[in-house]
Automatic annotation (TrEMBL):
Its main location: membrane. It is a multi-pass membrane protein. Plays a role in the flagellum-specific transport system. This is Flagellar biosynthetic protein FliP. It comes from the Bacteria. It comes from Granulicella aggregans. Belongs to the FliP/MopC/SpaP family. The chain crosses the membrane at residues 32-55, 173-193, 213-233. Pfam families: FliP. It is found in: Cell membrane; Bacterial flagellum basal body.
Length: 234
């Protein structure tokens, strides 16, 4: 092997079986892989909100807690944990596809990190395209001044990401409002009865909250709510 040494702080140049190699610059993609992975870890919270059903689920659960008249039960940590578990259940097939098509080839050294990101984006775009509203897509296509694609699967992430999160917010508020109405009727009936019998010193919420909890438990509310939410993504 021939080694040429430069003077001073210059990098050495070595000629081996693979040709010339500049020492000190690295001959592997491991540093770039670490950079990509660390960047991805910092983006996980945002990705969780933007490309998954997490936002819709959490909004509905908060609406339920307010409708039942419970301020801190279940706690925020419980609702967030439940939303994450349901999100994992719904996104597992998409995550498996991303792992098979992007992560495994990247680990085997068959593709670059940029290629892996492009491959991982395809299953996510397909998932979001099923639940995005055309009205929201048209809005962001107009704002981005992009031509209308022939298929919704051809939308760029610049358009489909804000369109999807806006659609999820609307869906979450719609479900939460429908969920709120039966408990609102209970509140109105209890308030009307307590006022008519002259119980002005007793807040209606003291009576309505146990009644709403009994109603929710009698109809097996958690089972019905979770089942309806899961079916809304099928």
């Amino acid at each position: 092997m021939f080694v040429a040494h430069g003077g001073g702080a210059g990098a050495g140049v070595a000629a081996g079986p693979g040709g010339l190699q500049i020492n000190g610059l690295g001959g592997t993609s491991a540093p770039w892989t670490i950079v990509v992975l660390m960047t991805f870890l910092t983006l996980i919270p945002s990705l969780l909100l933007c490309v998954t059903p997490f936002a819709r689920l959490l909004i509905v659960f908060h609406f339920l807690r307010q409708a039942l008249g419970l301020q801190t039960t279940p706690s925020n940590q419980t609702l967030i944990g439940l939303s994450m578990i349901m999100t994992f259940f719904l996104m597992q097939p998409v995550g498996q596809t991303v792992y098979d098509t992007a992560v495994v080839p990247l680990q085997d050294g068959k593709i670059t990190p940029l290629d892996a990101l492009q491959r991982a984006g395809t299953p996510l775009r397909m998932f979001m395209s099923h639940y995005v509203r055309e009205k929201d897509v048209n809005l962001f296509l107009e704002l981005a001044k992009e031509p209308r694609p022939h298929k919704v699967e051809d939308l760029s992430f610049r358009v489909i990401l804000p369109s999807y999160i806006l659609s999820e917010l609307k869906s979450g508020f719609q479900i939460g409002t429908v969920l709120f109405l039966p408990f609102l009727v209970v509140d109105m009936v209890v308030a009307s009865i307590t006022t008519s019998v002259g119980m002005m010193q007793l807040p209606p919420v003291v009576i309505s909250t146990p009644l709403k909890l009994l109603l929710f438990l009698m109809v097996d509310g958690w089972h019905l709510l979770i089942g309806s939410l899961m079916r809304s993504f099928q």
